[in-house]
Design a protein that fits this description.
Blueprint lengths: L36 H10 L5 H23 L2 H26 L7 H25 L5 H29 L1
Helix pairs in contact: 2-3, 2-5, 3-4, 3-5
Protein name: ATP synthase subunit I
Keywords: Cell membrane, Membrane, Transmembrane, Transmembrane helix
Pfam family, one: ATP-synt_I
C-alpha cells in the first residue's frame, strides 16, 4: 500500500516542481556604511558597557547580605556559613572565568570562552559536590537560596544599568 501523493495544479508532483527562488534574490538589507567618529561616540554613550568586576562585586555583596539575614533569622551560624558558601559557589568560579577572559594577555576567541565556561561549570559542580564534606552541619536551603539569588544578580544589575543609561540620555 502506497501513501497518497499530493498533487499540485498542473498535474506535477510536489517533488518534481522547481524551487522558485525569485523572492530570495532581492536585496533586503540596506547597504552597510561605517560610522563617523561622532556617531560611534554617540552609540557608546547611549549603550555604556558594564564591568564584569562590578557584577562580581554585586554578587558578593548579595551573598554576604543574604548570609547575614539568613543567620539572624535562623539564629544558626551553620545557616550563615552555608549561605556564604552558596554565594562562593557562584562568585569564585565567575571570578576565575572573568580573570581568564578579561585578564592581561587573555585571548578572546570562542574557543577560549568555551574552555573557561567549562572550567567554571566544573569548579561550581566540584564545590557543590564537596559542600557536605566541607560544611558540617550544612543548611541546604540557605546554601541553595543564596546560590540562586547570586545567579539572579546578573540580570538585575544589567536591567538596572540599562534603565540608568536610558535616563541619562
Amino acid at each position: 500500500m502506497q501513501p497518497p501523493q499530493s498533487h499540485k495544479p498542473g498535474g506535477q508532483h510536489a517533488a518534481q516542481q522547481a524551487f522558485d527562488d525569485s523572492d530570495w534574490t532581492e536585496d533586503i538589507d540596506p547597504p552597510v556604511r561605517p560610522l563617523t567618529r561622532q556617531e560611534a561616540q554617540a552609540l557608546v554613550a547611549k549603550h555604556p558597557s558594564m564591568s564584569v568586576w562590578r557584577i562580581l562585586a554585586w554578587q558578593a555583596a548579595v551573598a554576604v547580605l543574604v548570609a547575614l539575614v539568613w543567620g539572624v533569622l535562623s539564629q544558626s551560624p551553620a545557616s550563615a556559613v552555608s549561605a556564604l558558601y552558596g554565594g562562593a559557589v557562584v562568585v569564585i568560579p565567575n571570578a576565575l572565568m572573568a580573570r581568564g577572559i578579561f585578564g592581561r594577555g587573555a585571548g578572546r576567541s570562542v574557543g577560549v570562552l568555551l574552555v573557561w565556561e567549562l572550567l567554571k561549570l566544573g569548579l561550581s559542580g566540584a564545590m557543590l559536590a564537596l559542600s557536605p564534606v566541607l560544611l558540617r552541619p550544612i543548611d541546604w536551603a540557605a546554601m541553595l537560596v543564596t546560590l540562586v539569588l547570586c545567579l539572579k544578580v546578573i540580570g538585575v544589575v544589567l536591567l538596572l544599568g540599562q534603565g540608568r543609561a536610558k535616563k541619562s540620555v
